[in-house]
Amino acid sequence: MRAWAGRLALVAGVLACQGGGPAEAPTPAALLRERAAVAGVRPLAARPADPPAMVALGRALFHDKVLSGSRDIACSTCHNLAYHTTDLLSLSIGTGGDGLAVGRQLGTGAFAARNAPELFNRGHPEWRRLFWDGRVEVTAAGLATPAGAALPPGLSGVLAAQVLFPMSARGEMRGRPGENPLADLPDSAFTAIWDGIVSRVVALPGYDTLAHAAFPGRDSADIGIADLANAVAAFIGTSWSFPDAPFDRLLAGEDAALAPAAIRGGLLFFGRARCATCHRGPLLTDQEFHNVGVPALGPGLAGATDAGRYGITGDPADRFAFRTPSLRNVAHSPPYMHNGGYRSLAEAVRHYRDVRAALFAFDTLGVDPRLRATIDLAPASLAAITSTLDPLLGAPLSLSDADVDDLVAFLVALTDPRSSILLGDIPATVPSGLPVHDY
């Protein structure tokens, strides 16, 4: 018997060496790659750069207050490169405000309805819906936007379409009636608003030079709002495409790219924490709309509680549903949620442990003191929010504090190191001569 046992052990050893033995368990890094692949996550392809002259024109426009009704705010005010294309505020302060980022004061302005998202990787071709409520989106019939038939032809894509609407929004850039000629136009007069902005821009010699370089062979009279929007989109898409996060390197086969805590967090993310149910695909968003039980705060839209996607579709099931944000470079974009209700990644992750409990026990002390009076935790409001809560979030998750720490470590690993320093993209001056900075 001993002889037969010895022979069997020898055969088993030979078979194992030849690949016939029990398969080795995958390493944690390999298992994370497998789970990510199931969720459609793959390394983010580098985006082709736009022509340098287009990017140069867009860079100037992005930082120039001439695009706003009262010439007092630029795209870069709320998407500031010193703060990774955000302003660190729960809700931005648009036209009429004074100062920069968390030091910005209301002045004669007001808080916007929603948080200003970061702009990383927005030029990626997989984007089909932008804004928290998806009001600008790619459909089978083409681009759908609030402008309807007034949307100008010739836009390069969904990002260029998105660029148009902060300029036409009163609280963001256009201003209120009586403040400037653009603000005196009706809200529905999109074409007149945009034509007024174009007239301002092409009248400036510096822009005339930039536009002729970007659109050779065309006269200034032929430059339209679509051209300006395309240039800003080219600047955003080319400048802030960051496809080389540590997680991307792990997906490409570099097992040591993530620390053990981040790998544990990734396995949770694509496993029992169920994050990848919505945060999937190469952009780590399904670009769909979900009510995740975020406490209501801020002015809302049109003086009402912000009902999210419902304002676009009119479908009661869409009340309080907002588009899933991309998590790429998410460590750079606090505060979190559509209204900036959570100041840190850890707070945002803890919200998902028990969404109902987090909603009812929301800590108001973490909110900007100027916004605390707008927090709506009235029983009727809480009941309304929970009535359309996403079914995926009905049951609490069993996540320990250590699990939360690991999930945060994974989220930090979604950040491309090059996205940390963007100051080189800020021009010293712009053609209008208006100040670039808001000190």
Outline of this structure?
The protein is mostly helical and 439 residues long. The chain has 16 helices and five strands. The protein is globular.
Report the count of strand segments: 5
The H-and-E topology, N to C, reads as HHHHEEEHHHHHHHEHEHHHH
Choose one word for the global shape: globular
The gyration radius over C-alpha positions equals 25 Å
Kindly name the structural category: mainly alpha
Helix content: 25-40%
Unreliable runs: 1-19
Sheet-strand content, in percent, reads under 5%
Distance between the termini: 87 Å
Provide a count of the helices.
16
Biggest sheet: strand arrangement: 1-2-3
Biggest sheet overview: 3 strands, antiparallel
Mean pLDDT metric: 93
Could you name the key traits of this structure?
439 residues, mainly alpha, 3-stranded antiparallel beta sheet, two-stranded antiparallel sheet, 16 helices, disordered N terminus
What would you note in describing this structure?
The protein has 439 residues and is mainly α. It contains 16 helices and five strands. It has a three-stranded antiparallel sheet, with helices on one face. Strands 4-5 form a two-stranded antiparallel ribbon. A hairpin with a 2-residue loop joins strand 2 (136-139) and strand 3 (142-144). Helix 3 (52-62) runs antiparallel to helix 8 (205-214), helix 3 packs across helix 9 and helix 5 (158-168) packs across helix 9. It is globular.
